[in-house]
Structure prediction request, 373 residues.
Amino acid sequence: MNASPSHRPHPAEWTETQGLLPSAERDLPAGRHQFHKEQMMARIHEDLRTSSRTSATSSRTHATFSRTSATSPVAPVKRSNPFLRRTILLPAAAFALAGAVAGGLALTGGGADGGRTALATGPALTTTIGVADAKGAPQLLDRISLAAADTSAPAPRKGQYIYIASKVADSYIKTVGDKSEAVSDELHSRQVWNSLDGRDGWLIEAGETSDKGITLKSDVPFSGAYNALAALPTDPDALLRRIYRASDAVRDPEVPSDQAAFVAIGDLLFESYPPAEVGAALYKAAAKIPGVVSVDDAVDATGRHGVAIARENDGERTEWIFDKKTLRFLGERIVVVKATAGNPLKVGTVTHTSAITERAVVDAAKQVPGQVS
Prediction:
């Protein structure tokens, strides 16, 4: 399906002059969705930790902290990718309860907004939908797993940080008065630093933080941290059984178990730096999930074309995008592929798009690759 001529095929082509709308509330705030998805991931990692005495896996949380002054910026923190998913693993009715018991995290912001600026919005992002092939997924995932097993990347040392730079954008329904319209945030940059134990880090994201960023220091470690990933089992069957067991315990009953497992694996791979053998095991585990397909063409947030591993649920397809030659992970997007009664967005709408632009090991938080600490 081709994108409407009035819409841009990917965010790399956006300009701030195209159909900008006034600021308004989202019908389904991204933060709410991401927060409750993070509670599912926290439960998964708690299960993984208690299932294996040697596991150092940790809960990945959409942590929120009390803010201090502008000179020491601390603000509500997104501890992971800012995906807008309709495959949320907690029902909407549980929002208040889940928020109240979220691991003792401070949910009150208070004070100024920490220097955040509102992102410009334009027409909802649309795309051409790639052709899915169920038979091609196992072979492609086997090749991706082999590429992930490459051990040439440097192993991080104690005291170092994992640095991930990306570009992201989301589409959603925005309501102004009594009028609702599908819009997209402008494509914007995101930089994340995470310590190896996942308890310390820094985030700079346009529209979400000030230019200086906000701390990610927390007693609740980030589940995608290097140490947590390194402690995961490398046997794909054992790994997948744990993920199913943990995600089944907390998912919305309307979300299929297979979809919950697929989303969980994707969240373990994004904004992370898994050891080679763990990354390979995660892809081999994904190959065992029913309904996983390959896609002949998908485009990341910066316009790079690649092949994808994907799974559809409730009319939306989550796609992990890889370089066609090297099979290096490029990014992820979520595309509306079928009209459903519960989704007002049109077929071809990209509800989330991301592109990893740099992934590296650095010596300190806020240090960029190539910079002397």
Notes: The chain is about 20% helix and 25% strand. The helical segments are 30-51, 95-100, 137-148, 226-230, 236-248, 257-269, 276-286. The longest helix spans residues 30-51. Residues 1-112 have pLDDT under 50 and may be disordered.
